[in-house]
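Incident log, support desk, overnight shift.

02:14 A customer reports that sequence design results differ from what the structure should imply. Their input is reproduced verbatim below. On-call engineer (initials T.W.) acknowledged and began investigating.
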């Protein structure tokens, strides 16, 4: 089957305005979703748009008479937040082209927005590749960033003209020689990601020694097309000096590949992976800039025509999604000891659904009261900020998902100002990363939450 026409070409300047004009138009015309486009801009505007969407979606629902599932959990997605992430990226790392890690959140509106803004894509499977291509993104805007690939997926990527991938072991080089011998290869090296929220180097990445003494000579003997180096300092990285060490090792691999194996013409990609977050981007981008200046100075990079790329996931989408959940049940323990939680709240999303990040991403999203006694609190977030567990007048709860599994615990202990009960709503801000991408339908609870789009741009 012929691929669809590439509407998002590689020459799309990624320095163009973030919420690309044609994308804005298509959003307005979209019949699938209710999308509220704001004329003013900025983060404060984002809060009022999200508030409006939350109120609109929930205020008509009477849990005592509604149809089954009408009170299901749902997301509000602020696309303007994704644009602001991309803007910040361009501002701090203008020389590094982002390839959005699709695994983080495969939402099509996010992918379309990023594609139309010139962002490229990191895909790790056949399905991710097909999703991105189906939107008309040209294959040269995709890096197949999975160092251990299925043979048939390698053949599929060759058929689809994907021309860049990562490798960290000898077997993978043999596979590429057999199924996609012209593919550009980035040697993925391990990093010290011991303090990261999610470690990746225990599974992927070779040592500097293996890169230089095993993979480069083998790739050379097999006639493969080594293009550069990739690394990832762990998702939710905390120690950014790891970036510095990885860039230094990357330069050593560049030097060996060029001087000993004749890869002078082709060695021109450095992929600094993901691990970035908006909250720490000042420090992480500073470390990237320092390391690139030291090991890939302008003169060297110009001569070698080095292209810097990255694979940010969490950075792009984390802040853009807010999850609203309904309180479906409450159990009180009137005999609770002083050190026990006196009441349990049960909500209609949990660790098997959109809050799977608690298990898989080592991230505990913070719950807030959205609606109590038909009063909305989203704009009074501070009223629900954690209060000392022993303070008088606070209401202490544990919060549980809807399945029958005891593992399905969303929060062991949360303090609310309000005495939350059945029919109230809770919300979880900043849950765009590694949430809706990994839901299950365990116990018959579908993880496919509706998404209400707003756009504060
Ligand atoms: C190869 C690769 N690239 C990029 C990412 C995205 O990382 P993050 O969401 O921390 O930016 C991941 C996450 O697992 C990954 O495995």
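02:41 Re-run completed on a clean worker. Output:
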């Amino acid at each position: 089957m012929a691929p669809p026409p590439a509407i998002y070409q590689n020459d799309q300047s990624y320095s163009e305005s973030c919420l690309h004009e044609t994308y804005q138009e298509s959003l307005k015309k979209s019949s699938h979703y209710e999308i509220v486009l704001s004329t003013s801009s900025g983060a404060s505007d984002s809060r009022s748009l999200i508030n409006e969407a939350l109120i609109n979606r929930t205020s008509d629902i009477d849990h005592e008479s509604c149809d089954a599932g009408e009170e299901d959990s749902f997301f509000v997605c602020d696309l303007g937040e994704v644009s602001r992430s991309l803007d910040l990226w361009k501002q701090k790392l203008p020389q590094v082209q982002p390839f959005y890690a699709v695994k983080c959140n495969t939402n099509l509106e996010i992918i379309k927005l990023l594609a139309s803004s010139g962002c490229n894509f990191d895909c790790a499977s056949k399905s991710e590749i097909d999703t991105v291509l189906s939107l008309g993104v040209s294959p040269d805007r995709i890096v197949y960033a999975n160092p251990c690939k299925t043979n048939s997926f390698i053949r599929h990527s060759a058929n689809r003209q994907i021309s860049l991938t990562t490798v960290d072991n000898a077997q993978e080089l043999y596979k590429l020689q057999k199924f996609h011998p012209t593919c550009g290869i980035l040697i993925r090296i391990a990093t010290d990601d011991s303090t990261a929220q999610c470690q990746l180097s225990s599974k992927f990445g070779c040592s500097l020694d293996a890169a230089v003494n095993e993979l480069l000579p083998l790739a050379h003997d097999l006639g493969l097309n080594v293009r550069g180096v990739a690394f990832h300092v762990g998702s939710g990285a905390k120690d950014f000096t790891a970036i510095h060490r990885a860039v230094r090792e990357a330069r050593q691999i560049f030097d060996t590949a060029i001087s000993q194996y004749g890869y002078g013409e082709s060695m021109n990609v450095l992929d600094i992976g993901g691990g970035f977050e908006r909250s720490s981007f000042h420090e992480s981008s500073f470390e990237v800039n320092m390391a690139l200046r030291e090991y890939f100075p302008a003169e060297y990079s110009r001569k070698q025509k080095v292209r810097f790329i990255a694979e940010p996931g969490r950075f792009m989408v984390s802040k853009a999604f807010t999850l609203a959940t309904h309180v479906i049940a409450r159990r009180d323990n009137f005999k609770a000891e002083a050190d026990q939680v006196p009441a349990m709240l049960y909500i209609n999303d949990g660790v098997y659904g959109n809050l799977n990040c608690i298990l898989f991403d080592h991230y505990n999203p913070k719950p807030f009261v959205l609606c109590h006694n038909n009063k909305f609190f989203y704009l009074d977030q501070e009223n629900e900020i954690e209060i000392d567990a022993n303070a008088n007048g606070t209401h202490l709860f544990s919060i549980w998902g809807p399945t029958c599994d005891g593992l399905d615990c969303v929060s062991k202990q949360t303090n609310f100002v309000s005495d939350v009960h059945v029919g109230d709503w809770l919300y979880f801000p900043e849950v765009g990363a590694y949430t809706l991408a990994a839901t299950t339908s365990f116990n018959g609870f579908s993880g496919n939450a509706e998404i209400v789009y707003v756009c504060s741009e």
